[in-house]
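Handover notes (outgoing to incoming on-call)

Open items:
1. Alpha-ketoglutarate-dependent sulfate ester dioxygenase: sequence verified, structure written out, both below. Nothing else pending on this one.
2. Nothing else urgent.
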Amino acid sequence: MTLTDTRLHVHRIGGRIGAQISGVDLAAPLDGDTISAINTALLRHKALFFREQQLDDEAQVRFAASLGQLTTAHPTVPALAGSDHILAVDGGEGARANNWHTDVTFVLSPPKATTLRSLVVPEYGGDTLIANTATAYTDLPEPLRRLADGLQAVHSNDYDYIPHPQFGTEEAEQRREVFVSTRYQTVHPVVRVHPETGEPNLFIGGFAQQLIGLSRTESRDLLRLLQSYVTRPENVVRWRWAPGDLVLFDNRTTQHYAVDDYGDLPRRLHRVTVAGDVPVGLDGRPSYVVEGDAATHYTPTPQDA
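Alpha-ketoglutarate-dependent sulfate ester dioxygenase structure tokens:
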């Protein structure tokens, strides 16, 4: 990969996903060539990792905005005080995202990209796993791939937390009530075509609840089978956080998982997301809303983005 007119260096850290970026200060204004180089690296490697960045909230928002128009923090969860765009990701009780998911797929236009910046990291544990859902799709046996190509799934923010013991507390229930204060259900293609690369990928994850035309039991079994290809070790990169790190991943073709193995140690990140488009399947069918609205308070409509 050749990058011109920039000192940015791309060091591949995984065979199928992930590259560490050096030679760039994200706290400084970035020129067009550098932004283009970062976007090119993102499309190729799906997840980019920047060490030892000296960013504050304003600088993180500015960097994310260089990649496209921003969403607000979240469709239902309040933003960090003082910024409409920052979601505090706090590893407190009932707030740990230890399930595989793609950010905010329960709305019509999920984010294009996610930036995560570490503020407080535990002395052990708390890594983030990121999976390449495009290589997961290519791993599918041909008969299973043909089946997946025509499927659509209902994604919802109202899903079952009960199997996880951490979600049985009063605090966790209060968090859940906020999360589902507006209920969203959106139908997305199971196989999404990436709008920039044209790559097909498995667009499922934790918010995918049921397949159109199939029973809940059939949906659960088939989604688990497809998901098992996403989380194969060769499709996954693991990032050990250090203070000051910034991680950028393409939310259109990845899933991620925050590993809950740090006990009661503090872990705090700030998230800013870049607005995306309406997913489209291999057959050209776009996503559509079943319940809720287009969440325009959260993300701009495609014609405005």
